[in-house]
Amino acid sequence: MNRIILLFLLSGLCSLNAQKILPEVERAKVVDDMLQQRMDSLLPGLMDREGIDMWILISREYNEDPVLKTFLPATWLNARRRTILLFYRDKAADRLDKLAVARYNIGKDIISAWDKEKQPDQWERLMELIRERNPQKIGLNFSTDHNIADGLDKTDYDLFMSSLPQEYKSRVVSAENLALGWIETRTDREMTLYTHLVRITHEIIAEAFSDAVIMPGLTTTTEVEWWMRQKVTDMGLNTWFHPTVDIQRTSKELQGHLYAFSDRPENQTILPGDLLHCDFGITYLRLNTDCQQLAYVLKPGETDAPDFLKQALKDGNRVQDFLTENMQQGLSGNEILKRSLTDARAAGLKPAIYTHPLGSYGHSAGTTIGMWDAQGGVNTADGTAYGLHRRTVYAIELNTTVNIPEWDRDIRVMLEEAGYFGPEGFRYVNGRQTKLHLLSGQ
Fold this sequence. Notes:
Helix content: 25-40%
């Protein structure tokens, strides 16, 4: 029998994952309810914050603006033909118009404002709606620094600007910060669900890094990766990237960061004494997780991981603490990065921090706190960086290099956990790893 098939059969007998996964019809109800709540409770305030009273999103089918996709109801998997959304905020009247320049409503809340029999030209109908409301700032999704906020393609931009009356052209602005705010901000209900998502993620990792899945001397890293991928599929969920599992052991030199992306060997057989690392995330209810954890394979006679590996994990936790303690509202990602690296280095650690926003997308939009190849900060077109806002989620992703005399080498403690920066400060969405997963090695 194929080894990986045997692993699936064995793991199915003792699954650790007991989380309830909603059927598709129930998921759709949740997604649509959350979308309605977000439009009603978040969008008006975000438009007021950025001073944009009209936000126009334009996409064609299968070439969707990533922001527009988040406004589609659960039964819309893509835009249809050319989809145009218009949000108009009348702050004085405390009103938000949610219109579709399309022949049909988009869900229950974005109402069709185009009758093709009365006005055959879709662009001209959009211009009529603009003239009727006379906005002072028209936000479009173009951005130099944030790809998710740069979803308006050149064709639609050119057609829009050529149709727009001359007196409104000077009122067109980038909706970059509005788009970022919409993508990054989470409601209380979403955060309740986020705990559920991260718990599922943690439980899958715990099962993958257990004797139910791994047989040292037989199981390979690639088999564990595909087990994780298949587990997610069997649960009716999706992964937003292929899982990775890698090994650090006494006989291997420390690899560079590119090792995880392009040079990582496949089918490494897992052995007693190995330090295992995984990178894994799921997609569910239009939210995403991203997690990296560590496991140790006990050698014969061992009942616990060596103290030097437990201390190395504590060092990784200390870097996490330096980062999260420096997360303050309004600070740029570059400033948070600089302060956190300075504090960690002063404590004798060798950190690298590359924390990214997490939410509607895995590598989402918002405050970027370093990249693995930009530890001096992230360059932006205008010399600034988007500041930290509350009610936002981040993959607290980082590592610290630790010298292990017992192995005569350095290792890298790579960690990643979902964290929430909310009204009361920072917290982990569902805790963080402070103890190594242990495998019996038998």
